[in-house]
């Protein structure tokens, strides 16, 4: 059985790690058959709660568009009519009645590298849908140590099957799933779940990546100075919940001279190493960088579409997405002025990335 609650009020997430109870106000629950989530159009998977071992579905209505927004999890909150809570066991059982959408593409990325822009380019093509950052993808990566690898694979597989219920999905041939950057920590898990799909990887150089992160935080209204009380939370979020011991020999999280760009540099380096490890293990990944995407638009988009099986005739139409802010309508819209990192930040980033523990060219081309 699933418990269905009316949504009395909702507000946007400020941080993706925010508890759902701080975002949604729910009314009293009513017990219903699990099959309701399959038979009533508009039910969409929202999150996996690893503390309570249940999945949360949101009824957004059959006519709600989740694809073309910058962040699907925010649109779910804006459109939430009802919420359903289902135990992990029931969630896995119900998923067996569904099939993963095909053709399917994973869009992995290091964040702040044009992935939201590419997401909009794909939607603009008219031939494929891209879904950007449904929250369950963050939950699976961030809580990977809470369950066995076998259970993580099962939950990830079930989650992909529930994408088949997305409103308007069948109006286009291909579905692209744009992940949070934290997914870099479980590339092997996603490869086990869907070994035969196309995997894209988007990245950019270390310094411009750090600058983009720095501006994003300001647009979100966050204090960018690293106060001691906040540093462990910052590290956990930026690194994808990596243990603090990862920093041994690299950074002192409690050091007086720690700067934002230090954390940005290390997390960038670790994600590049995640890509390299997955590639060396045999995972098929098509790598593209931000410079290629923005400076050689035609040829790069054509190459990405070829990898995804999207008709090359749609490239010209898709390029229209470059003419607008991919974050338009979000609090991170680029019309908000922000400060840049100081020039000396580049030197700090280069020094950290040349440390033997990382040893990565900050301008690497993969």
Between the first and last Cα atoms, what is the distance in angstroms? 48 Å
Q: Quickly give the structural class.
A: alpha/beta
Task: Identify the quaternary structure here.
Answer: single chain
Apparent shape: globular
Helix count, DSSP H or I runs of 4 or more residues: 14
**Unreliable parts:** none
Q: How does this model look, in words?
A:
The N and C termini lie far apart (48 Å). The longest helix has 21 residues, at 260-280. This protein has a single domain (99-366), classed as 3-Layer(aba) Sandwich (Rossmann fold). The model has no long low-confidence stretch (mean pLDDT 95). It is globular, with a radius of gyration of 20 Å. The chain contains 14 helices and 11 strands. It has 366 residues and is of the alpha/beta class. The strands form 2 sheets. Strands 1, 2, 3, 4, 5 and 6 form a 6-stranded antiparallel sheet that branches. It has helices spanning 36-39, 72-79, 88-95, 115-124, 135-142, 149-162, 187-193, 206-219, 231-239, 260-280, 290-295, 297-308, 315-318, 344-353, and strands at residues 2-10, 24-26, 30-32, 43-49, 54-59, 82-87, 104-109, 128-132, 174-178, 198-203, 286-289.
List strands and helices in order, with pairings.
Elements: E1 2-10, E2 24-26, E3 30-32, H1 36-39, E4 43-49, E5 54-59, H2 72-79, E6 82-87, H3 88-95, E7 104-109, H4 115-124, E8 128-132, H5 135-142, H6 149-162, E9 174-178, H7 187-193, E10 198-203, H8 206-219, H9 231-239, H10 260-280, E11 286-289, H11 290-295, H12 297-308, H13 315-318, H14 344-353
